[in-house]
Amino acid sequence: MGRIDYLHDPNAPKANSVVPSVVAFVQNEADQILMIQRSDNGRWALPGGGHDVGESISDTVIREVWEETGINVEVLELSGIYTDPGHIMLYDDGEARQQFSICFRARPTGGELRTSSETTQVRWIAPADLAELDVHPTMRLRIEHAMDRTRTSPYVG
Prior knowledge:
Nucleoside Triphosphate Pyrophosphohydrolase, alpha/beta, 2 helices, four-stranded mixed sheet
């Protein structure tokens, strides 16, 4: 299913849903960041997805990272909560979802990189190489906040 992101666009459709979702900022021992190229819009992003009934939010992080990348992770801490009502994601089926995303820091514990139906590429990326990737501005914000280890409390906005 395709997806179009609208960011503070007056032509954006009116949101008709909100789905709690997670993204995981996963960094390996070489300080590389686990990134995926999304199959729905072609952009690079942190792995993540929607929260399912019956899961803890940490279980959602672990499941989504595994499903999209083949990497097992341990959730370390909350990095931020992102609820910009001006960020609307329009899907092919007519769903116009308002952003509601919780970002967690996590560390890899095993697994092997692989793609999935939701990813066309999965890579460990050096922070200096992130500028070369097509990453949505709201995803860049999550990455910047997660990389800023001087912050003493999670971002909420």
